[in-house]
Amino acid sequence: MKKAAALFLAVFMVVTLVACAAGGPELGTYNGVKGKFVGDTEWSTEDEFSIELKAGGKGVFNREGESFDVTWKLEGEVFTMTETFLGLSIEYTGTLKDGVLDIFNNDPEDDLTYEYVLEKN
Fold first, then answer.
1. Is 44 domain-assigned?
2. pLDDT tens by residue, 68-117
3. Is residue 19 part of a domain?
4. What is the pLDDT of residues 6-55, one digit of tens each?
5. Cut 0.90: pTM above it
6. Which domain holds residue 90?
7. Is 18 part of any domain?
8. What is the domain-level CATH number for residue 37?
């Protein structure tokens, strides 16, 4: 009986670890495709940026040669992210659909808001 219980516990732990490690389909690295200020008509494709979405709503936003820790949430296709830097928080909103992450770092109607478009690796 003890052997059966120990075997069951071992199998349960392995299955749980595999399930947690796998994560959801949204996890992974998204590489920058283009970006622009909302008020601009031309997209820039020269900027290098990426976002790594990790399990537990954590991640890293890499841009301008720097790495910024972020927290994120996905509800359906609605994506929200908060970047914290030097005690300041920047809120991002947007969508994640079919491997394309489209986010804004402020009000999407404000000409000075920057829009980032990224695609999953």
1. yes
2. 999 999 999 999 999 998 889 999 999 999 999 999 999 999 999 999 99
3. no
4. 444 343 343 333 334 446 999 999 999 999 999 999 999 998 999 999 99
5. no
6. 25-120
7. no
8. 2.40.128.120
